[in-house]
Amino acid sequence: MCGIVGYIGYREVLPVLLNGLKRLEYRGYDSAGVAVLNNKTGIYKCKGKVTDLEEHIKKDDGLSGTIGIGHTRWATHGEPNDINAHPHMSYRGKFVIIHNGIIENYAPLKETLVSKGIKFKGETDSEVLVNLIEYIYLKGNMTAEMAARLALSKVEGAYGIVLMCTDEKDKLIAARKGSPLVIGVGHEEYFIASDATPIVEYTKSVIYLNDNDVAVLTRSELILKTLKNIRLTPQVHQIDLDVDEIDKGGYAHFMLKEIFEQPRSILDTFRGRVISDGSELRLGGLFHVIPRLVEAKRIIIVACGTSWHAGLVGEYLFEDLARVSVEVEYASEFRYRRPIITVDDVVIAISQSGETADTLAAVRLAKESGALVLGICNVVGSSIPRETDAGVYTHAGPEIGVASTKAFTAQVTVLAMMAILIAKKRNLLDDKQYRTYIKNLVEVPDKIGAILKDDAKFRNIAGMYQHVNNFLYLGRGYLFPVALEGALKLKEISYIHAEGYPAAEMKHGPIALIDQNMPVVVLATKDHSYDKIVSNIQEVKARKGIVIAVVNQGDTAIRKMADHILEIPSSPSIFTPLLAVIPLQLLSYHIAVMRGCNVDQPRNLAKSVTVE
Ligand code: G6P
Question: In this structure, which residue's CA is closest to atom 15 in ligand 1?
Fold first, then answer.
């Protein structure tokens, strides 16, 4: 949440900041702002998007300099308006800050500062922090860095900040606790951002800040230390990310691009993990922990949002194939309810960003209990992979659209590979079955490619239902989590109310909603519960509901009953979620576009939820 970008070097800073903010806008887009430090400090900020900010800045063509900071906001404290937009300048004008996170004890801190005569312009917790830094700085007659460290040690909550001091003009100070920050290392220049996307066009060398790290950057030097002033040696990593991966590549939206990328992204997920003759799966990241994984008494999956839905598919996979008991938890609930975790448990955190605050907190809690803690993440070098014992990257490439699509299918692919691997090691699969599953997995990208060819058909159906107010999604077994995911996709981007249900549960409530205005998307592929889902379709039709059924190619029985059918190729049930979700992603996408919604940046949402 919130995108942060900072630069110190020799380039004209404004284009660096604005380009960076555009790349980070998926993290929050309520308001945006920049500050450039020169002989004077120029701050420009406004409600709205980065393009609004650009318009706003055009009024001043004198804004020039080689050191500056920028921010795109997802509001927590204070409504999104010009005043609450970042950067914030301190009361006496000595400091300018951008902040991502929440200062939980901002209220008592603010009260103290107000009692000292400090006046506030807006309502944000971030303005409290910058004023606290300035107050300590002026009172203690110390360096900016020292004041920042002292102030941050009084703060409860989460922050990723970048700070400039008007008395120390050639310096940026960055600090992190809970909210991610990456430093790009160039020649006589440094970049700072919430993630690497604004940095890759300048340098591939990055340093990830850890919690309680403070970085002091001048053009020629980076000093890394802890909040307690202990010097650290920066670890420089090389990132494997290209600029064209973070562009739209000719598609109207990132979301559409990412939906269409899935044949390739899934291939990337299993590339190098299916050994070439298809006889074996290898997950290098789990190599050292396989014995504990195979002997696990229980697997606990923690995640949020779409990743939680992938986790639910994981439950079916692990229980079905590997016969190990699984619990799938919302990370936010898990962390606060004193969960029982034993050393025999394996906790798997699933997160596209690797930064979701609740999931990260759940990881830390699980680690304290001595369980083996694994991560399934997409963003390389993010916090969860760095804090877990081991894990598997999904390698889906950057996902920019706020509504997750290719990350979901990549997560499910990893979970399927893990389940097959554990099942094999537990002697629950013979060689033939094992190889067959690997072959079926390798076929998935082409099958998705075939589904994507029907896009015009999905768009056509979307056109018929773009104006409805409610949607219901039903599925059983492996497709129940897909029903949840289909409903989530629709509500996230089109703002149509949608609910996903296990099909049999329909009779315990949702059936009361069904009438001739209610479209019901039924996931009805051929598996052991096919007859039961056919009965569910009849129950919907008996109440005049509109049935949009996802079926296997060649299904004739449901074709006769349903109002519309969306066909997908057949596959073993363990891989059906990867196929069945595709028509639902496209249906949501087209409905949202037809309703005039901003699909890549849906209202109120953010891609990376780094606050609780
Ligand atoms: C936000 C995003 C969702 C995502 C969820 C979990 O709500 O909008 O798309 O599924 O966070 O994010 P994670 O990065 O942990 O997978």
Answer: 351
The C-alpha atoms of residue 78 and residue 97 are separated, in whole angstroms, by 16
User: What are the Cα distances from residue 43, in Å, to 22, 29, 62, 129?
Assistant: 18, 18, 12, 18
- Counting from 1 in the atom list of ligand 1, the atom nearest the Cα of 304 is 6
Is residue 48 within 8 Å of 32, Cβ to Cβ?
Answer: yes
Distinct helix (H) and strand (E) counts, the chain: 19, 25
CB 387 within 8 A of CB 366: no
Mean pLDDT of the chain: 94
Distance CA 357, CA 339 (A): 18
For residue 294, give the nearest of 440, 420, 432 by alpha carbon: 420
Q: What is the pTM of this model?
A: 0.86
pLDDT for 298-332, tens place per residue? 999 999 999 999 999 999 999 999 999 999 999 99
Q: How far away, in angstroms, is 260 Cα from ligand 1 center?
A: 20
Note whether 441 and 341 are within 8 A (CB): no
In tens, the pLDDT along 21-67 reads 999 988 878 899 999 998 788 999 999 989 999 998 887 667 889 99
Distance 612 CA to ligand 1 centre (A): 12
Q: Are strands 88-89 and 41-47 parallel, antiparallel or unpaired?
A: unpaired
Whether residue 581 contacts residue 486, with contact meaning beta carbons closer than 8 Å, is answered with yes
pLDDT at 244 over 90: no
